[in-house]
Automatic annotation (TrEMBL):
Pfam families: ABC_tran
Top-level taxonomic group: Bacteria
Protein name: ABC transporter-like protein
UniProt entry keywords in alphabetical sequence: ATP-binding, Nucleotide-binding, Transport
GO terms for MF: ATP binding; ATP hydrolysis activity
UniProt keyword Transport, yes or no: yes
KW Nucleotide-binding (keyword) present: yes
Lineage, opening ranks: Bacteria, Pseudomonadati, Ignavibacteriota, Ignavibacteria, Ignavibacteriales
Occurrences of domain ABC transporter (ranges): 2-237
Length: 251
């Protein structure tokens, strides 16, 4: 569905992504993981068409986004929902207005249609009745779920999550992970950037490990856990030890 082919990004003489090739498959949860500063958020910027590659190509459903004009890029972005690292809710707007903020062509909808949309989205993220609250009245987990509702408002084909569970307690983490899985059941495609290995393993179908702007390895969990790449091995070492202990205890 989305393909990066040999993408290189340079900013201020620094190589941020180096020859990155990867594929996001339709209907799957793809995890992008790696340490801080590895280039994970940068990959999302490339998928959104915010950063154009200095070298390489980006294909969305087979179309090269590097060849698109501004109007075509705006159309492309209507297919992609984004849940930003740190929510990025507007403090001065209610939950309802935050959710509608990025909805294109708002005037197309009647008041009743917009209200129905908000009710449906809030129900999906288990926040029914929160439409008139302001962000300061919400917990971290609730804010995250509003940010997810906002990303879903225009029925995107793909949803990009940047660190969706960072800073959340276990209960809120579980509810965000549940939402991501619920989206998959609905047929959505999600790309989830995270450095939290447990959360990644819980919802991931495919894993792409990034280190210093390069793809260290990619594949399903088994392939990643058995990777011959030394960085990937190190990254998962602790988890592997715990997993093998659990398996040997028959858990
Ligand atoms: N606009 C920019 N100009 C120059 N360098 C940048 C810019 N944005 C990011 N970088 C650098 O690119 C590298 C990758 O950044 P990126 O935000 O993609 O990392 P990340 O993997 O998302 O890290 P984190 O887990 O901390 O969010 C970092 O070294 C960062 O300092
Ligand atoms: Mg980041």
């Amino acid at each position: 569905m989305i393909e990066l082919k040999n993408v290189t990004i340079e900013k201020n003489d620094k190589t941020i992504l180096n020859n990155v090739s990867l594929e996001i498959e339709k209907g799957k949860n793809t995890i992008i993981m790696g340490p801080s500063g590895a280039g994970k958020s940068s990959i999302l910027k490339v998928i959104l068409g915010l950063w154009m590659p200095d070298e390489g190509n980006v294909l969305f459903e087979g179309r090269d986004i590097c060849q698109m004009n501004d109007n075509e890029l705006l159309e492309l972005r209507k297919n992609i929902g984004m849940v930003f690292q740190g929510n990025a809710l507007f403090d001065s707007l209610t939950v309802a207005d935050n959710i509608l903020y990025f909805l294109p062509d708002k005037r197309k909808y009647s008041e009743a249609e917009l209200k129905k949309k908000i009710d449906e989205l809030l129900s999906f993220v288990n926040l029914s009745g929160a439409e008139n609250l302001y962000p300061e009245e919400l917990s971290g987990g609730m804010k995250k779920r509003v940010a997810i509702a906002r990303a879903l408002a225009f029925n995107p084909k793909v949803i990009l999550f940047d660190e969706p569970t960072t800073g959340l307690d276990p209960i809120n983490t579980a509810s965000v992970l549940e939402l991501i899985d619920k989206l998959k059941v609905k047929g959505s495609t999600s790309v989830i950037v995270t450095h939290i290995i447990d959360d990644a393993m819980e919802i991931g179908d495919k894993f792409i490990v990034i280190n210093r702007g390069e793809v260290a390895d990619s594949g399903n969990l088994q392939k990643i856990l058995n990777s011959s790449n030394s960085f990937v091995n190190q990254f998962f070492l602790k988890r592997k030890q715990l997993l093998s202990e659990r398996i040997s205890f028959g858990a």
